[in-house]
Each structure stands twice: as C-alpha cells, then as structure tokens.
Design brief:
mainly alpha; 65% helix; globular; disordered C terminus
Length: 240
C-alpha cells in the first residue's frame, strides 16, 4: 500500500472513530442516566454534529474527510477519488467504527444487551414513531443520505463555493439537522460505518440490511445528479 494511501486511510479511521464515539456515546450516556427520551434528541444531534465537525477539520488535509463509506461512493462518482481509494477508505472507516463500538463497550458496560440502545446502534423499532416498517426506514435513510451527500459535494468539493474553510460547519450542521428530522424514525445513521461499529460491539446486526445498503443508494443518486447538473471540478491548487 502506498504511504499516502495508508496515511489517508488511517486519517479516515481516526475520523470515524471520533464521530461514532461522540454520536453513539451520547446515546449511551443518556441511556445509563435514564434520560434517553425523544426530547433529548437535540443532545444526540449536537454531539453527532460536533463530532463530525471535529472529524472533518481533523482529516480534510490528509484524506479529504469522507468519514462515511456512502460518501466514498459519492466522491468516486463525482471524480474526486479512485474506486481503489473508496474501498480502502471503507475498510479503514469500518475499523475505526468497530474500535469506537468496543471503546463504548468498555466505557458503558451496563449497556451490553440493553434494548433498544445496543451501544448507540441505530434502529427503527419502537420510539416515539412506533414500529417503523423496513420500507419506511430504508427510504428515510436513503433520502437523508441524499441530502447529506449533496451538502458534502456542494460545500467541500465544488470549486465555485466561497469560504471553503467553513465546510466543516455545514457538514456538521446537516448531520445535526438530519438527526433532528429522522432520529425518531431510524436514528438517522446515514453512514454504514456508524451503524456497523456499535452493532458489532453489541452483537446485534438484525437490521443491517437497511443500514448497510440504503445510504449508498441515496449518496450515489446525489452524486450522479450533482455531477451532471452542477459540478465544477476544483483546480489542483484549490483547497478542499
């Protein structure tokens, strides 16, 4: 593996570790304190958004700050990374998420087997929305990931956007917004690694089919539409 690709992969691993630890960890913290109620969705959204913001600024100069296997595919479709990079990133991102999941298992041992939290694993059963059908859950994940990917492409990739130093605020902000919209439906994962890490740590992969496929569909659709309708490639010297 080339040294540059290794460094980029490690950056993605650490970025996803931070994001999953903050997002899923906020759920664990609320659950063990007995305050994990729908009204606290804003706390989860804030922790997840700030975690993503930190991951973005901490890795963008090394790897481009994908921090999401689904966004890897959007970046590949839009011509920002090769397919090889996309898959290498994906492997490192999943490792980072799994490490975060087991870190949460160490930090919150009482969460083991605690339904429906499972170390912050997103799920679409129960909650304020009641039992959600797989179709509704899948469409929610795809639609919200479409929005996330569109924001990433428009704020961190397209060379016409001004004030690029604020891309992390935009991406962290849309993470907060999507959780506020979809958190009570699916947990608003929008990120296969975000689901996979806590799910493996909890030994609960019962809804993996939805969370490991639908974000890819939403991100790919956003990338195809943005590339052909709006994309202007950045010049080599442009900062992303």
């Amino acid at each position: 593996m080339q040294q540059g690709l290794l460094k980029a992969g490690l950056a993605e691993m650490f970025g996803v570790f931070i994001f999953v630890l903050m997002g899923a960890g906020s759920i664990c913290g609320l659950a063990v304190s007995g305050t994990a109620e729908p009204g606290h969705l804003v706390i989860i959204a804030l922790a997840s958004g700030l975690g993503m913001m930190a991951a973005q600024y901490g890795t963008a100069h090394v790897s481009g700050a994908s921090i999401n296997p689904a966004i890897n595919i959007a970046m590949w479709i839009s011509g920002q990374i090769s397919l090889a990079y996309a898959f290498v990133y994906m492997a490192f991102q999943c490792v980072g998420a799994i490490l975060a999941g087991f870190a949460l298992r160490v930090m919150f041992p009482r969460m083991a087997g605690l339904e429906p939290f499972y170390f912050g694993t997103p799920n679409f059963v129960g909650g304020s929305e009641g039992d959600v059908s797989p179709m509704r859950a899948g469409m929610t994940e795809a639609i919200l990931t479409f929005v996330l990917a569109w924001v990433v492409l428009s704020c961190a990739v397209d060379s016409r956007r001004q004030g690029k130093q604020f891309f992390g605020f935009a991406i962290g902000g849309i993470i907060m917004a999507t959780i506020l919209v979809g958190g009570n439906i699916t947990g608003a994962s929008l990120n296969p690694a975000r689901y996979l890490g806590p799910a493996i740590a909890a030994g609960n992969l019962t809804q993996a089919g939805i969370y490991l496929t639908m974000p890819f569909i939403g991100a790919a659709l956003a990338a195809v539409l943005y590339k052909f309708l709006f994309m202007q490639q950045a010049a080599p010297e442009d900062e992303v």
